[in-house]
Each structure stands twice: as structure tokens, then as C-alpha cells.
Amino acid sequence: MSNIEDVPTGPGRDPGPPDGPLPMGEPPEPMVEPDEIREPADTPVPVEPDPEEGPGHLPGDIERADAAGRTD
Question: For the whole model, what pTM was predicted?
């Protein structure tokens, strides 16, 4: 019995999963109604750069620093 196909299936043995897709039952209830508008929890606040952080904390800062001759 070197192959799994050679193992006899008898009463009490698990036949394995069915060949087709498993029945999924009823779909879950949606968490919100389709026409419900969800507001964000907080209003986004723009983040001001910290001058102590140095270059690289905003897009393009490294390029501007290189153009100005800074190599921090």
C-alpha cells in the first residue's frame, strides 16, 4: 500500500471533501445598509512638518536639500 488510492474505504472512514463546491448557506448580513452613508470617525488634520526632523519628511524634500547643497 504505497499509494493513498490503495487504502480501502470502509464504514467509519472519512471520504474527504466532495468533488463540487461546498454549500455556503445564507450570505452574512451586511454591517451597514447599502444606502447608509458612513462618515469618517475623525476629520483628517493636515500634519505640519517638524523643522527638527530635517529633510526627507515630505515628498521632494531630499531633492530640494540636494539642490540647496545640504547633505544631512
Answer: 0.20
